[in-house]
Known about the structure:
The chain is of the alpha/beta class.
Amino acid sequence: MENFKDIRAYRVGWLLTICDFLFAFPLLWAWALKTTKGIRLDFLGDRKQIEADIKHGAFFMTNHRDIVLDSAWLSLLLRCKYFIRPFIGIGNNLFAYKWIEVLVRFNRCFVVKRGAGAHEQLENAKQLSAYIRMLREQGKSIWLAQREGRAKDSNDLTQPSVLHMLTLGDDDFFANVKALNICPVSITYEYDPCDYLKAAEMQLRRDDPKWRKRKRDDVLSMKTGIRGEKGRVVFRLTPSINPEIDAMLAAEPEVKNLPPKEQLQRVCDIIDRHIHRGYEIFDRGTEFDAYIESRLAMIDIPNKDEAFLREKLYEMYNNPILNYKKANE
C-alpha cells in the first residue's frame, strides 16, 4: 500500500460504517427527497444474472451527469440493496481545498491525478492502474466514469484513454479487461441542474479556444449540481461485458491481432452500447420548451449567443434519446 500512499482511499472500516449510518446515508436520502422526484435502482436484462455478475465485485463504469452525486447516490443504492460500497475514483482537479480531499478519501475515494506533463501522466496512469488492479484482486467493487469530465452535450462515449489506463501492464488486453469485470451503469437525470452552465461553457470555448475552467468554476458546478432540481433519477445496472467480449472473440478471432487502438475502440463500443440501451427516456411534456427558455435566461456571459445556447441546451437532452434509439435498433 505504500506505493499508493498519495492516491489510495483511507481504509478505516469501523469509522466508515459509523459515518455511513449516522451521517452519510441520512444526509443523502434527505437530499434526494429535497432535490429529486425519487432516485431508483433498476436493471437492464436478467436481474439475477446482473446480481451474479456483481456478487464478487464489479467495476461499475458509468456515464457522468453530476460531479458529486453520480457516485454518491449509486454507492448509497448499492450499499442499501447489496451491502456493496464501491471504491470511487475522484479527479484531483476537484480538490479546491485540502479538506475536500481528506473528506472524500475517508469516504472510500481514491485520487485520479490530472493536469500533469506527458511523462508524469504516464507514471500516474501506471500507479492508478496498479492500484485498481490490486483492489479488483481483493474482490473490491469500483466506480469510475467512462471519461475524464462530463460530456457537456450528453453524448456519452467511453474515452479510450480511460480504458487504456485501466489495462496498462498486461500483454493480454482482453484478459485484462475481463479481469476488471466491467458492469456498465446508465445514469439518467430528468433535468440537469448544470445544463445552463454547460451551455455557457460551450459558447466560451467556441469563442476562445484557449478558455479554461478555473477552480471556482468546478466549485460552482459542484454546488449547483448538489442543490439544483433534478426531477426523476434512474440508475440502471447492466450485465458484465465479459460474455459479449467472449462472443466477439469466438466470432472474430482476428480481433486479437488488431492494433491496440482498434481493440480499445471495440471494447469502448460494447460499453457504450450497454449504457445507451440503459437510459430512462422521460416524456417531458409540452412545458419542456418553457423550461429551456428559463435555463437560457440564467446564462450570463459576454456576447451571449442565444440561438447557439438554445441549440446546445436542446442537444444535451436530445442526444441520449438518439443514442438510445440507435443502440436498440
